[in-house]
């Protein structure tokens, strides 16, 4: 035997530590982060059975944030309530005036005015679209309810435009506060819309004014962003010319810069109108008066899907008309003949004069009354005949996709669903196979892929809703470090820690699970559709109007078809989220793949690459930043739809917000809304960070 002295052993250990440190130092940041996640995840899995605090945040360390927020806001609201109620009274006057004007005006006059405007903006096509859309609304019997909705939009949009415009100009003029203003705008757009309603109800009282104010809060940020962007894009030569002519700063801004940014500002007008329309319908949840959003909600609650579908189509028509007409105004194109505009307007006035004695009243139209009965009858027959198939689709997706993602394979795999019981031995075998695969990938210089496989295996076995909080914080911190360095890492950890200490961790993980499941489907399906659109122009011609249609549909309407076939439940919420969030993935994938510079493609083709190799080696890498932005938008869309999905059966943060609205619990509503905004903000910053790094790597 060979003896080793104590000093020799110490020296050998020191050498080994130095070698290990040198090897660790030589690892890339991605490998280090993945390795740290694997080690922390393994430690959590091993210690969780004996250490309950790893899986569940200790109650002793949970802050009574909802009570603090509730008491603080209640005291503040009591102080502000007299001024707020006075403001609400003042806002009732323009709302009542707009309502009397639109409801009391002959429908022929309203149609004539909007048709004349449609011709002036877009010619015969826009004229036909306006006449067909408004004709459908009149025939549906929902004209009065639609005018009530339009009254809210007519008042809320100008307010949102003024507020958003002033915010945009303020951020442009004072660069020192620009970042703060942008953060506030992010918060205004990421806080779920339902979360606005609870505090506003306490502050302004019950009624349509709450919907108006919530609409302004939600619709102002798009205007602010586009005003800021438009002013930033004004050519320096134009500014210099204004300065050389002796214009003051106010004159330079009002007479030169804002007119130069008109086209971008009009894009903001379009987005503001769409946001206001969407929010007004959401505000119908609190009631107030008989608008079209309330009709949709009421018919859905009664399971009168025929009426619900007709009312939903009315909302879609409003959204399409608002989008097309405001988009037409945003485009710098020649307007059509004013003579035809006057002729259309005069025709509307003449018909309106003859409306009383010769035409039915707006409430007398019920052309689709028989159609709604037919829809309900055929829907009932279809669901009865295909109930087993629909139930099979629902159960298969729930038991084999959603439930494993939610609670993990170790709890979801049961004899009556999978045919066998998951055991600890199976877990050990799965982790063993994953470890071998990770080792093989590491030996092939793909260490990040191997370690990521181990992390994904752990998440799949454990379930997103059961993830230990230390692992989540470490993983987010590591992703933040890779995406943007220590500042982004600290931001991600601190923000998510706020959710943890507020005691909303479990519903937050449920929101994360449902969002992740929906985004995963959107990435796979939407990415594949976007790829097909990039390869075939014919596919894009078919998908483009579909994407336009899906993006103009207000959130409420997505609930109608899924409820018709799959009833209330988590699966219906999942489908509604996917339908709403898939469009950005399709659009950005198509745009990224088709915007690759021709010189790069020509260089690849001249080197002998075939079409698939060009796609894999050139187009996809170059379009990665754009596709990542599409992923970012898909995630934000999914979060925004989560609260709406709470109406049809979820148990996440959205449900907490909805319960707070019903109970008037302002503390819970604000805390849950802030928690969902935090998750969305963290996801937004991480994706933007990775997109920026990819652009830098490509030299863009």
What do you see in this structure?
The protein is mainly α. The protein has 30 helices and no strands. It has helices at residues 6-25, 29-47, 52-55, 65-104, 107-140, 143-173, 178-190, 193-204, 208-232, 236-244, 249-260, 262-282, 292-301, 305-330, 338-358, 369-385, 387-407, 409-412, 424-443, 447-462, 469-484, 486-501, 505-535, 537-552, 559-566, 570-594, 598-606, 611-645, 653-663, 666-697. The longest helix has 40 residues, at 65-104. The radius of gyration is 29 Å and the shape is globular. The N and C termini lie far apart (64 Å).
SSE topology string: HHHHHHHHHHHHHHHHHHHHHHHHHHHHHH
Q: Give the total of beta strands.
A: 0
Classify the beta-strand content into a percent band.
Answer: under 5%
**Category from helices, strands and their pairing:** mainly alpha
Radius of gyration: 29 Å
How would a crystallographer describe the biggest sheet?
none
What is the averaged pLDDT score?
A: 83
The N- and C-terminal alpha carbons lie at a distance of 64 Å
Query: How many H/I helical runs?
Result: 30
Which of globular, elongated, flat, extended, rod-shaped describes the shape?
globular
């Amino acid at each position: 035997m060979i003896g080793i002295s104590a000093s020799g052993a110490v020296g050998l250990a020191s050498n080994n530590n130095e070698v290990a440190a040198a090897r660790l130092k030589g690892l890339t940041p991605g490998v280090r982060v993945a390795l740290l996640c694997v080690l922390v995840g393994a430690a959590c899995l091993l210690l969780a059975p004996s250490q309950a605090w790893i899986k569940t945040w200790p109650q002793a360390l949970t802050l009574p944030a909802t009570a603090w927020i509730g008491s603080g806001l209640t005291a503040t609201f009591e102080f502000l309530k007299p001024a707020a109620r006075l403001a609400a009274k003042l806002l009732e006057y323009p709302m009542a005036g707009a309502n009397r004007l639109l409801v009391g005006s002959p429908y022929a006059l309203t149609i004539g005015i909007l048709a004349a405007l449609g011709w002036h903006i877009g010619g015969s096509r826009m004229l036909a679209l306006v006449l067909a859309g408004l004709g459908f609304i009149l025939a549906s019997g929902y004209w009065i309810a639609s005018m009530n909705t339009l009254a809210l939009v007519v008042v809320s949009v100008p307010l949102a435009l003024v507020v958003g415009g002033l915010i945009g100009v303020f951020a442009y003029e004072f660069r020192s506060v620009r970042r703060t203003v942008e953060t506030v705008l992010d918060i205004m757009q990421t806080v779920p819309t339902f979360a606005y309603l609870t505090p506003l109800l306490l502050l302004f009282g019950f009624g349509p004014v709450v919907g108006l104010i919530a609409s302004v809060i939600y619709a102002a940020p798009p205007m602010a962003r586009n005003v800021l962007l438009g002013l930033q894009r004004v050519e320096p030569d134009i500014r210099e010319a204004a300065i050389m002519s002796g214009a003051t700063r106010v004159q330079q801004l009002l007479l030169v810069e804002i007119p130069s940014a008109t086209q971008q500002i009009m894009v903001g007008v379009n987005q503001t109108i769409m946001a206001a329309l969407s929010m007004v319908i959401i505000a119908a949840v609190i009631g107030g008066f008989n608008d079209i959003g309330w009709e949709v909600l009421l018919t859905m609650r009664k399971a009168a899907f025929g009426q619900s579908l007709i009312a939903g189509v009315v909302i879609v028509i409003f959204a399409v008309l608002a989008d097309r007409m405001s988009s037409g105004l945003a485009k710098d194109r020649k307007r059509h003949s004013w003579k035809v505009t006057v002729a259309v307007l005069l025709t509307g006035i003449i018909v309106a004069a003859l409306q009383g004695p010769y035409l039915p009243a707006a409430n007398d139209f019920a052309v689709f009354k028989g159609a709604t009965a037919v829809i309900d009858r055929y829907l009932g027959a279809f669901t009865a005949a295909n109930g087993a198939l629909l139930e099979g689709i629902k159960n298969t997706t729930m038991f084999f996709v959603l439930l494993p993602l939610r609670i993990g394979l170790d709890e979801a795999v049961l004899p009556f669903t999978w045919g066998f019981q998951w055991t600890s031995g199976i877990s050990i075998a799965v982790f063993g196979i994953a470890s071998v695969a990770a080792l093989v990938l590491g030996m092939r210089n793909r260490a990040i892929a191997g370690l990521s496989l181990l992390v994904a295996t752990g998440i799949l076995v454990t379930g997103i809703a059961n993830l230990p909080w230390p692992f989540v914080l470490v993983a987010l911190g590591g992703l933040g470090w890779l995406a943007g360095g220590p500042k982004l890492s600290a931001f991600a950890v601190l923000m998510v820690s706020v959710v943890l200490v507020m005691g909303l961790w479990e519903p937050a993980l449920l929101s994360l699970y449902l969002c992740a499941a929906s985004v995963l489907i959107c990435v796979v399906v939407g990415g594949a559709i976007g790829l097909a659109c990039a390869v075939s122009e014919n596919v894009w011609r078919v998908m483009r109007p579909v994407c336009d249609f899906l993006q103009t549909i207000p959130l409420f309407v997505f609930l109608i078809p899924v409820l018709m076939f799959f009833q209330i439940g988590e699966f219906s919420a999942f489908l509604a989220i996917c339908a709403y969030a898939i469009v950005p993935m399709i659009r950005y994938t198509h745009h990224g793949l088709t915007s690759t510079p021709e010189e790069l493609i020509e260089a690849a083709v001249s080197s002998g690459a075939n079409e698939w190799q060009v796609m894999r080696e050139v187009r996809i890498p170059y379009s990665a930043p754009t596709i990542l932005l599409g992923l970012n938008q898909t995630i934000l869309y999914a979060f925004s739809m989560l609260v709406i999905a709470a109406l049809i059966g979820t148990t996440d943060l959205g449900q907490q917000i909805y319960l707070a609205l019903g109970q008037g619990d302002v503390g819970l509503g604000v805390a849950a809304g802030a928690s969902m905004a935090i998750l969305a903000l963290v996801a937004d910053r991480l994706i933007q960070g990775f997109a920026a790094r990819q652009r830098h790597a490509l030299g863009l």
